[in-house]
Amino acid sequence: MHQGSCLCGEVKFSIIGELGAGSACHCQQCRQWTGHFLADTEVQLKDLVIKDDAKLKWYESSSKVRRGFCGQCGSTLFFDPIDKQKHSWIGVALGSITSKTNIKIEEHIFVAEKGDYYEINDGAPQHKN
Q1: In this structure, which of 27, 42, 92, 126 has its CB flanked by the most CB atoms within 10 Å?
Q2: Quick count: other Cβ atoms within 10 Å of Cβ 124?
């Protein structure tokens, strides 16, 4: 089991199943949302238990996805595909997981949109989209 929360602790959650591979999304939207890029892991929706969610807010950034964040401190938390018939997972920001994850970034996506102020040098595969 893994524990997580936002910076101020108003939104708390547990993950009762396995964490997916770590990935980093460098698209323009993720960079604007996080201030850098989104490092996350996919978990099964059924395995995510949100304990305290009074301050949890959702922003529908496209017709395909909504993004969850704390309305109190602004912490990036969840990347949630809207079409649940196609997707049974939710992305959880790795930085919001407070317990040890024991995973590494295994791929970088949307690197064609990455910022010009950093390099990706970790050896993980890079995908333009």
Answers
A1: 92
A2: 15
Structure tokens at 96: 């919001």
Least Cα distance to 3 among 67, 59, 64, 48 occurs for 48
Q: What are the pLDDT digits (tens) for 81-102?
A: 998 778 899 999 999 999 999 9
- The two structure tokens encoding residue 112: 């064609």
Let me know if 30 is exposed, middle or buried by CB neighbors in 10 A (0-12, 13-18, 19+).
Answer: buried
Which residues, at least 6 apart from 8, have a Cβ–Cβ distance to it below 8 Å? 55, 70, 72, 73, 75
Under a CB-based contact definition with an 8 Å cutoff, are residues 54 and 71 in contact?
Answer: no
pTM for the full predicted model: 0.94
- Residue in this structure with the two tokens 């949890």, named with its chain if needed: 56
Q: How many CB atoms lie within 10 A of CB 26?
A: 21
